[in-house]
Automatic annotation (TrEMBL):
CDD domains: APP-like. Residues 22-225 form the Peptidase M24 domain. Transmembrane segments: none annotated. This is Peptidase M24 domain-containing protein. It holds the Pfam family Peptidase_M24. Gene3D superfamilies: Creatinase/methionine aminopeptidase superfamily. It comes from the Bacteria.
Length: 246
């Protein structure tokens, strides 16, 4: 990266109080929307219908500009990281994935949650708990004061690779977020980025199995002097991820 460009990226990455307030407000609205979406789910509903409901709900809460088109995927479609909602219907036993965010005064939020429509199978449980553990390890690493992006990425990646092989977690651990959904810096295996204090990062490990499904869990964290503060305030334990079909 050229020196001048790098400087612009670094200045942009560090959020002022007002910028941070916008990101947090956008995230709180996303959480209200997700709460409503969970109540709206029922067997037979399509991904498309839920994606439309997500958009309509954001509008209702005063956030008509979304950070990106909402990702709503059921069953095997959860193995596709950038799945576009279609006519697939929700059925018992399905994995469900939501990835969405909105903007407040041009500042974005970003969150992913994975659910199970009915009691998860042994495999679903194992995959879910492994992704959650990988995320916890990465956040713990940041909390300890680590600022090197590749070291943080490696913490989560090594854990998942050891359990499931190297091809199941095919994207970076996360990215900066601000007026655009993907900002500098980046959590990637070969990233030379060092996180500046005051930047907001996503931490989003995932595992994907073609023809079966996937799990991704994503929070946003503020990088502080000594560690980090999680800006996402939505449950992600296995019990909360298990929904009763209706």
């Amino acid at each position: 990266m050229k020196k001048k460009t790098k400087l612009i990226h670094e200045v942009r990455a560090v959020k002022s109080r007002r910028e941070l307030a916008n990101i947090i407000k956008a995230q709180r609205i996303s959480e209200r929307v997700l709460k409503d979406v969970i109540k709206k789910l029922k067997s037979g509903v399509t991904e498309l219908a839920i994606a439309r409901f997500v958009t309509e709900r954001f509008r209702r809460y005063g956030a008509s500009v979304l950070a990106f088109p909402p990702i709503v995927s059921f069953g095997k479609n959860t193995a596709n990281t950038h799945h576009e909602p279609g006519k697939t219907k929700l059925k018992k036993g399905d994995t469900i994935m939501f990835d969405f965010g909105c903007t407040i005064n041009h500042y974005c939020s970003d969150m992913t949650r994975t659910y199970f429509w009915g009691q998860p199978s042994r495999r679903q449980k194992k995959v879910y708990q492994s992704v959650l553990e990988a995320q916890n390890r990465a956040i713990k690493k940041i909390s300890s004061g680590e600022k090197r992006a590749k070291v943080i990425d490696k913490t989560a990646r090594d854990f998942l690779n050891k359990k499931f092989g190297v091809k199941r977690f095919g994207h970076g651990l996360g990215h900066g977020i601000g007026t655009v959904i993907h900002e500098w810096p980046n959590f990637k295996p070969k990233s030379e980025d060092v996180l500046p204090v005051g930047c907001v990062m996503t931490v989003e490990p995932g595992l994907y199995f073609k023809g079966w499904g996937g799990v991704r869990i994503e929070d946003m964290v503020l990088i502080t002097q000594k560690g980090c503060k999680n800006l996402t305030n939505f449950p992600k334990d296995l019990k909360s991820a298990t929904l009763v079909p209706r």
